[in-house]
Amino acid sequence: MNDSFFLAWRYLQHHRVTSLVLIASLSLIIYLPAAMQVIVASGERHFRWRADSTPLVIGPRGSSLDLVLGSVYFDKPYAQVTRYQQFKRVKEQQLGTPIPLHLKFAARNCQVVGTTSDYLRLRNLDLEKGRHWDLLGECVIGAGVVDRLDVAVGDWIPVSMPTAFLLDSPPLRLQIVGTFARTETPDDDAIFVDLDTTWVIEGVGHGHAQGAQHGSSEAAPYTTITRENVKSFHFHGNRDEFPITAMIVIPDSTRAQTILLGQYFSPDETVQIVRPRDVMDSLLNRVVMIRSYLVAIIAVISCVTLLTMALVIVLSIRLRHAEIVTMTKIGCSRGGIWLILGGQIIIITIAGGFVATTLAIATNAYGPELARLLIF
Amino acid sequence: MIEMRDLDFTYATGGFGLRVNELLIAEGQRCCWIGASGSGKTTLLHLAAGIYSPDSGLVKTCGQEISAQTDAARRDFRAATIGLVFQEFALLEYLSVLENILLPYRISRSLRLNAEVRDRAQALAMTVGLADLLKRPPSQLSQGERQRVAVCRAVITNPRLVLADEPTANLDPANAELVMNVLDRFCREAGSTLVVVTHNQELLPQFDEAIDISQCCSVTQSAPTGGCPDE
What we know:
The complex is a heterodimer.
Chain A: H1 2-14, H2 16-52, E1 56-60, H3 64-72, E2 82-83, H4 84-93, E3 96-101, E4 106-107, E5 110-115, H5 117-122, E6 127-130, E7 138-141, H6 143-149, E8 156-158, E9 173-180, E10 190-194, H7 195-202, E11 205-206, E12 213-215, E13 221-223, E14 234-235, E15 243-244, E16 246-251, H8 254-263, E17 271-274, H9 276-319, H10 321-330, H11 334-365, H12 367-375
Parallel strand pairs in A: 5-10, 7-9
Antiparallel strand pairs in A: 1-16, 1-17, 2-15, 3-16, 4-5, 6-9, 7-10, 8-9, 11-14, 12-13
Helix pairs in contact in A: 1-11, 2-9, 2-11, 2-12, 3-9
Chain B: E1 2-10, E2 17-25, E3 30-34, H1 41-49, E4 56-61, E5 64-65, H2 71-81, E6 82-85, H3 97-101, H4 103-107, H5 115-127, H6 143-155, E7 161-165, H7 173-190, E8 193-197, E9 209-212, H8 213-216, E10 217-221
Parallel strand pairs in B: 3-8, 3-9, 6-7, 7-8
Antiparallel strand pairs in B: 1-2, 1-4, 2-10, 4-5
């Protein structure tokens, strides 16, 4: 047996390119369906968990999927806005806890999330370093932002403002005062600020005191808020009209949730209310449907690949006819010949299985991350 | 050593048949079989080795009536008792020189590979001038070196009988002489019987006996091409 495997191994070693192609093909045949299963399952778990922990979202009318992806998963800066009065409306009804979100801006490609401390409690965001914001222009960043931007507490991050040229004041730069512990959620990649800070970014609020505007260079001046100039910052207009992107609502009870859901059905409403769970269920059902198609395609490709592999093996046996005859003449039994040929198939199968298993374990370990990368 | 009587053989695919009335080779003898192409020399060699089984008649090799044995028994007997040298060397390209020499031990269940066999293989390679080439693949060897490897593979099991089918046909005269000397020396030292099928008339003086195959056997069916399937 050992000698047969030795001869099989030496043959594969000699024909290493063919052997590697066969191993790679087999690995992919085993790995692809497993990987897809792992990624989709962990993606489903990840998305459902986030959606399940977000009871209700109220936001501008339009695509409910865009609203959920933007306000729950911070898919991308969300341009559509509603008014702060919608937040007050829910609050005054005392049916639950509304959490405002302002998601219009980004800083160096990281989502800026203007919100209140209720959001941090909802998501169980724990500080790893520094402190929470207590001043306009201060921010606390997720662990992913620390890695991506290579920044730390005390550093500054300028906010990207596509409409800055329309405003009197130059773009605001945020001071990092704290970092959150890693959560493996979209919160890791976000920059959290007080809602008032996002209004300053938007130009609804501004400061007049000297020193409110500093520049890192003449070409790129920034608005900088400090303890010295913060008192000069103020807001113009009716606060109720100030923009927010959406709000998460944590209803006090099932009854409160039902009442809230019923309130926004009127066609005159400028906002919609959605249950993220329902929206994600609908999306994931489509993913499952797509997965079925993919499984069918992979099955067909796998069959074709297996047939090709079988053809390669059969052809190699035919090419080795003279060698097989020699071994038989010297004294090798028919079983021995099959053991050598079978040994090759076993080695390729074991190697292919090992590679596929290693890849599957790696995929399983990074499943949620991969799912996030693939979907967003 | 080799005894064939009243033997009839026809290939399963048809086309070539052979009848042997009587053929005797004594133990320890070094003889060559000569004859025209298609006279059945190689077929006879295969019958003597037990690679083919006759339709009828007796084949006795090294005292064993191999014509009455099963395929498996003949294979084990062949691996342990007979060394075979082929015209085309028949080396395995994916094995090194040393691994090729040791091949019978890798493929036969009746032989056991151990350190003593490895030492013997290295010593054998040294005596035929292959000591520095042991790790090389056959593709890096000359024709003469390849045939010397094939001879080493045939004699590594210390066979009682060495059957060589045109071992010098693809070699230049110098290498042909070298290979024949190696075969001759091994058989003399080990007391083995040597049977060589050859067309090379210059080699005949080296043998105790030269047997014209057409004198002791007759072709009962001729292949359309004039040669038997193995030739």
